[in-house]
Amino acid sequence: MSELFDAVDALVASRSPLPPPEERKRLRQAHGLTLDEVAAALKVRRATVSGWESSKTRTEPRPPEREAYARLLEKLAELYPAPTDTATPTQDTAPVPETFTGAPAPAEIRTPPSAQASDAAATITEENTQTRPAADTVTAPAAAARPARTARTSPTSRRPSAKKAAKKTTADAADPRFENGPLAVVDCEDGVVSAYCVGGLVLDVPAKSLPALVDWTLTEAKLGQARLHRNGRDADPVLLLTPAVLERYGLPAELSQEERRAGRLKDSHKVVKQIGKAGLQLTQRGFGAWTRVYREPEGSKRRCVQLCIPAWGALPVDEWDNKNDPQLPTMHGADLARFLGTYADRVMTPRGTTAVTGLELMTALRPPTRAEKDPTTGAFKPAFNDDALTRLYDVVECEVPDEHPKLKGKFARHHQRTPAEMLMEEPYNWCRQLTDDECMQPYLVAIDVNMAFAAAANGLTVGLNGPTHLTGNPKFDSSLPGSWLVDLSHVDLARVFGRTVDVDRLPSPFTPTGEHPTGPAWYATPTVAYAVELGFDVKPIEAHVRTQTGRYLDPWYKRLRDAYVATMADLGVTTDMGSQEFLDAMARSKDVDPTLALVLKAIKATAKGGIGKLRQRNRGQVPYYEPWPALERKTWRPDIRAAVLATVRVSMHRKMMKTAAAADVYPVAIGTDALVYPSPGPSPLDFLPYTDEGKPVPGTFRLGVSPGMVKHQGTQTVLWAEEQFETQGGVFNVANLIKNDPTAGEGE
Fold this sequence. Notes:
By secondary structure, this protein is an alpha+beta fold.
């Protein structure tokens, strides 16, 4: 009988009643719980909890998590009953309005209406920190949720402490130094300077000059971000200056042509002189689009503020904005704060371009040094961390770009290095002629690998020390990252799958162009390891390997993965969706929230740009063969970049082979991480192979939101492609021309 009772109890638990999504979110926020805390308690992903709270996704918890989640909400409902003046919404009614939803706090924490009412009279009397609500001239979606302007009160008043209490539930708000968030957008309206912070908070700025603004930020604004690693350092506060505030502080609305070339204001500019007279300093980069202004540290405490000036090109459209329909120039300060604040919370405080931020994120998550106590003296001294990039090491000729000083005198100026002289690990750029049968298909469907560069970094073993040169035909060791000179021209892919795969319609996995190698060439370890995986003998001639290894990029990948998945969940796309449900949600996501769409683009650009920065090239600031600044970074590691790109390419080839074997379909073009397939229908579901149970064939491309899975990039007709070829006079790579989303960037 007890077994029957247990079965009945389980059946009841499987249908435990739950409040509607809006009420679930209200209850969590009322208790000051973050999505991460609830997810950890229930042993699910953060995006899963976010989906349970979203009325758009309509995802529901399943046993055994459902019973525990229902119990949590029941307990919270006892502590925080629904406000008596607002009816608790049902699944078919409008949600309870929440204050400041137009600019969410980093962890999506909001104070419920009841708490706001109880704290309505509370004030904090700190000098020169008056707040006022945002202007009511903002367009949707933020304007509808932002409160209208109210009358100003005393110069020392702030917004009631309900907002402050809500913000303290975030990770940074737990640190009182950064209770107002990581950054602020400084704007000027009617002669009044205001700082728009995350979470809808607005601070009045009393500063009459730029140096005074910096000092106010350092002493009163309480902006910044806590370190991402215990051995790292806190992020400096960022101030984004609008054109109106540039005029207010005597800065030009745009740089002159000479200043643009120099990337900075002249030292003779009056504001630069003001900075010097105030005892503040600039870095060697001077006063440009991204500027650091600082005072000498107080002991171990940094006193630095970063200024971001979009009008001078600080937020280029290729990375931060929509280049076909720019939004940033017309975006209100509160919306800008929401955009960059969300990015800062999920990735890190911006440090410059998305590429620079991507590289800085690596160092922030894997700091090179830590403080270590000397047992004899008791004093602390820096010590190296074993899992980080800690020193500048010598470089290898085959791994560096043509303009590197190490190659000076090695080759003629315009010599084109061969694969046997240069490591050429790059993403695919390949296309072929359609066969007669493929021309009979009506469509060309492009699929795109999500966060391909970040996904390739996951679990990748890279070198942490300098190179060791192996000569005399060393034996290949896949555990040693580095570069190998080996002849792979004997690799015949037809031997792998026999006649079940037409290898002539597939690119070679060993070259970016897809052409078959013709002799010895330098390859990164993942490429050679793939040849071994396919069952071929490899006989290296020589190699440059690293003997101290580690998965240096793992925390970087996880941070970006979580940022990407969380943002997609906010846009209505979650990890638990089926293939068709995922495609439908992706089609809707483009119109859900333009601001979050920009956050998503910035996250993807951060992943791609961070890997690219590992081999930043000379941009022409110095003569050919002369050192450039990037070479002084410990993170200038072209070998790591090569390993990531090699992994991207061989991973795609592995799935192409599996897909061809399962469904007899072949790509006709590949551009970076986008693949174009002939298809009988306009959807990826029309050609991707599935089992009889409706699941993707193992090892093939799989539709989904997680990094490494694929999404639908776009569809065109075969006739369209033939017209393109005729116009260009021959077959060319159309992979990145087939896009349903015109805002999508190349190689995302």
